[in-house]
Automatic annotation (TrEMBL):
The modification N6-(pyridoxal phosphate)lysine is found at K648. It catalyses: [(1->4)-alpha-D-glucosyl](n) + phosphate = [(1->4)-alpha-D-glucosyl](n-1) + alpha-D-glucose 1-phosphate. Its EC number is 2.4.1.1. Keywords: Allosteric enzyme, Carbohydrate metabolism, Glycosyltransferase, Pyridoxal phosphate, Transferase. Its cofactor is pyridoxal 5'-phosphate. It is an enzyme of class 2 (transferase). Gene3D superfamilies: Glycogen Phosphorylase B (3.40.50.2000). It comes from Enterococcus asini ATCC 700915. One of its GO terms (cellular component) is cytoplasm. Belongs to the glycogen phosphorylase family. NCBIfam families: P_ylase. This is Alpha-1,4 glucan phosphorylase. GO terms for biological process: glycogen catabolic process. Phosphorylase is an important allosteric enzyme in carbohydrate metabolism. Enzymes from different sources differ in their regulatory mechanisms and in their natural substrates. However, all known phosphorylases share catalytic and structural properties.
């Protein structure tokens, strides 16, 4: 794909004339953005259709990544970068007096995900294409993405995210590829004319699933894969079947909103519909495509791999069985055999309350055919185990799919797929040894680890052009295609010039963030301060509260001794809380009130500042991460499956302050003990407390005047305006015995923070540590992660003509 600056300028101006009959100077940013989008789309359209044709002709095996969430963020710059014309376009626009950065602001973040899981899916899409792998995404086109967060008096308020209001440049509606999905009614098996048993549907609702395709461009390799998102419509023929407007509305709203990860939303009917809707549509369209290859269905697994991202798409399994048996007359045994070989599953959590279960009654009523098949899968599983382990009925009870009138989606996914993986070494070990131990005993060969990774292109090249330039000048540009080459930077750990350049880049990113903070919050912050960052969903196990307790300690220390030697610190938070998660919302309120107290206290005089940035999302992450000095990864050991912001922050030169949880363990292994600050209980110690049941949080309070003063501040008015929230937090620690061991780890955390303070004071050494972090972040490239999935799980290969280098 080649294009000169002059060609681009001509093309842009011509399209602007065609579409709006305007000159550059008359066009609004939105109009310019729309036109630029159409130039870009036209530019990759040939490659898109060529890729598609190549796959069809070669009959190559393809992977389909099923995920109920995708969180790509903005796509303009990423597409320009991957096409290799980012600089050309930027310069061309500048000639015309237009700033690319300003145009890029117009694009709405595509926020069809909650956090880690959805963002991971998008990093993976980018890497699949960039590695030249034939793989596509399958998900839901929500009309409203994750809520927008505002603070009112320090409280979180949720507003709808109308991301489609000005249209979406990148999507293509494919009416001709629509499929129908059935819900509800009765299903029974009856003998067909050929003597076969076939399901007969009575009174089912028929909905239409219409796909919207978005191009996923590989990095400068001419490959364009597809992210297919489904939207619901009511077919004309069905319009008479609705009893009332409300009845109809419920179905029309099926793809209206993304559910915020929210305990109150669990077990909701619409969520179950969403899961079946995108799964059924996706599997149907895969089979439809496959039949064009003229291959028999019993070798489907040689051409198709389906990945189940967490259990939300696990209905892929019974849906595939249904299509093979009901629509293509395959026997149960054959259908099951091929389904297991096609399917693979990733687990993203060990938190028991997060494991998905659906009430049998709900499943039966809404998805009767799915339930019949699940019941039979369960029955056969129980039969087989009874033969193999007649002496162990408890094992069968613990592992079967249907228990206590609930369908266990993780059990379904493990039993009916050939691969179950965790997302970091520690997490995968815990799955094998603890959480899924029974299944590991039954199917040891199915369990494997695939440590998460991140898209270096978005999180370094796009988010941090300053650092990228220093890297280019120092180690050449090969790291852009081969992130492992970042290692070369280690050779410069004693080179003062390079260290100064890295420091300069960091400084400039901190200034950029400081300006944003000033503009959006009115708070003035100094780029000289340590930028200490905790950005992730607000959840008790992630322990934003531990961070807050330490901030209060620093505050009281400075009040007591204004001459205390201490580096200036800016604590930055970014976090959304699920709308019904009241405890998490109380912590947001408390952080905001502490921020007010400290930022406005003349005694503190700016030596500590606390900023909670509103509406944390992909775009804001791109602004915060390059400016971070310290990366807070302080979850209770064993609770964070992997974390991925830890990798992004490390890649941008932040020093990780962490517990030995999730991928933090591998970050420590990568950089060595001297370049990371580790504290707190290990996962073993946490499990010991669980076994002995002898944790008494109140002992820590009783024995520590420091903790007394800090915790009392929540209930004695020291922190203003948190009468109820303060009491709730205080009680969670002392009355409800501190579920996530915040008080147990407090002292260790304070010491770790003191260590950070001391390390930062030696700027030369700090720069060296920062360099070592950048240099060793290459191993967390999602490109590598995807290559491992491709080789070890999906058994797909890069397509020759698109493969790297
Ligand atoms: C459940 C029910 C109803 C509505 C929403 C949900 C739901 C949505 C998303 C539950 C969990 C969801 O995501 C979990 C998640 O993001 N897990 C994170 O996955 C990352 C990628 O593997 C890991 O790095 C994180 O450690 C893990 O917390």
């Amino acid at each position: 794909m080649e294009m000169t600056k002059e060609e681009f300028k001509k093309e842009l101006q011509q399209r602007l004339k065609e579409k709006y009959a305007m000159d550059i100077n008359d066009a609004s940013s939105q109009e310019l953005y729309n036109v630029l989008g159409s130039v870009v789309k036209a530019y990759y359209s040939d490659a898109w259709s060529n890729t598609w044709k190549d796959y069809l002709e070669d009959g190559q095996k393809q992977a389909y990544y099923f995920s109920i969430e995708f969180l790509p963020g903005k796509m303009l710059k990423s597409n320009l970068l991957n096409m290799g014309i980012l600089e050309t376009v930027e310069a061309g626009l500048a000639d015309l007096g237009v700033s690319l950065d300003e145009l890029a602001q117009v694009e709405q973040d595509m926020a069809l995900g909650n956090g880690g899981l959805g963002r991971l899916a998008s990093c993976f899409m980018d890497s699949i294409a960039s590695c030249g792998l034939p793989g596509n995404g399958n998900g839901i086109r929500y009309d409203y993405g994750l809520f927008k967060q505002r603070f009112v008096d320090g409280y979180q308020v949720e507003l709808p995210d109308e991301w489609l209001r000005n249209g979406n440049t990148w999507e293509v509606r494919k009416e001709s590829k629509a499929v129908d999905v059935l819900f509800g009614g009765n299903v029974y098996l009856a003998e067909d004319t050929d003597g076969q048993l076939r399901p007969v549907y009575e009174g089912a609702r028929r909905l239409r699933a219409v796909p919207y395709d978005t191009a996923v461009l590989g990095y400068q390799n001419h490959l364009v894969n597809t992210l297919r998102l489904w939207s619901v419509e009511i077919p004309e023929s069905e319009e008479d079947h609705y009893r009332s407007i409300e009845d109809r509305r419920a179905f029309e709203d099926l793809t209206a909103v993304l559910y915020p990860d929210d305990s109150n939303e669990r077990g909701r009917q619409t969520r179950l519909w969403q899961e079946y809707f995108f799964v059924s549509a996706g599997v149907q369209s895969i089979i439809r495509y496959y039949l064009r290859l003229n291959k028999p269905l019993d070798v489907l697994n040689e051409y198709v791999a389906i990945h189940i991202n967490d259990t939300h798409p696990a209905l892929c399994i019974p849906e595939m069985m249904r299509i093979l048996m009901d629509e293509h007359g395959m026997s149960w045994e054959k259908a099951f055999n091929v389904t297991v070989k096609v399917m693979s599953y990733t687990n993203h959590t060990i938190m028991a309350e997060a494991l998905e279960k659906w009430p049998v009654a709900l499943m039966k009523e809404n998805l009767p055919r799915m339930y019949q098949i699940i019941e039979e899968l369960d029955r056969r599983f129980v039969n087989e185990l009874t033969i193999c382990y007649p002496e162990n009925p408890e094992l069968i009870q613990r592992t079967r799919i249907i228990q206590n009138e609930q369908v266990h989606m993780a059990h379904l996914a493990i039993i009916c797929s050939h691969s179950t993986n965790g997302v970091a070494k520690l997490h995968s070990d815990l799955l094998k040894e603890v959480v899924l131990h029974d299944f590991y005993q039954l199917f040891p060969e199915r369990f494997n680890n695939k440590t998460n990774g991140i898209a270096q292109r978005r999180w370094l090249q796009l988010a941090n052009p300053k650092l990228s330039k220093v890297l280019d000048q120092t180690i050449g540009t090969t790291w852009r295609k081969t992130p492992g080459d970042l290692k070369l930077l280690q050779n410069y750990v004693e080179d003062q010039t390079v260290l100064d350049q890295l420091a300069e880049a960091k400084k400039s990113n901190k200034q950029r963030l400081a300006s944003y903070i000033e503009e959006t919050t009115g708070i003035t912050v100094s780029p000289e301060a340590i930028f200490d960052v905790q950005i992730k969903r607000l959840h008790a196990y992630k322990r934003q509260l531990l961070n807050l307790l330490h901030i209060l300690k620093l505050y009281f220390d400075l009040k007591d001794d204004p001459k205390k030697v201490q580096e200036s610190r800016l604590f930055i938070f970014g976090a959304k809380a699920a709308p019904s998660y009241t405890y998490a919302k109380s912590i947001i309120k408390a952080i905001n009130e502490v921020a007010n107290l400290i930022n406005n206290d003349p005694d503190i005089n700016g030596r500590i500042k606390v900023v909670f940035l509103e509406n944390y999302n992909v775009h804001l992450a791109e602004l915060i991460i390059p400016a971070a000095d310290v990366s807070e990864q302080i979850s209770l050991a064993s609770k964070e499956a992997s974390g991925t912001s830890n990798m992004k922050l490390m890649l941008n030169g932040a020093i990780t302050l962490a517990t030995l949880d999730g991928a933090n363990v591998e970050i420590r292994d990568a950089v060595g003990d001297d370049n990371v600050v580790i504290f707190g209980m290990t996962e073993r110690e946490v499990y010991q407390y669980y076994e002995r049941q002898d944790y008494v949080a109140k002992d820590y309070y009783d024995q520590s005047p420091v903790l007394q003063r800090i915790l009392n501040a929540f209930v004695d008015g020291t922190i203003p305006n948190i009468y109820f929230e303060g009491r709730e937090i205080f009680d969670s620690l002392l009355k409800h015995n501190d579920e996530y061991f915040v008080l147990r780890d407090f002292d260790a955390y304070v010491k770790a923070q003191e260590k950070i303070d001391g390390l930062y004071r030696d700027q030369h050494h700090w720069q060296q540590m920062s360099l070592m972090n950048i240099a060793n972040a290459g191993r967390f490239s999602a490109d590598d992660t995807m290559m491992r999935y491709a080789e070890e799980i999906w058994h797909i290969e890069p397509v020759e003509q698109y493969s790297k280098k």
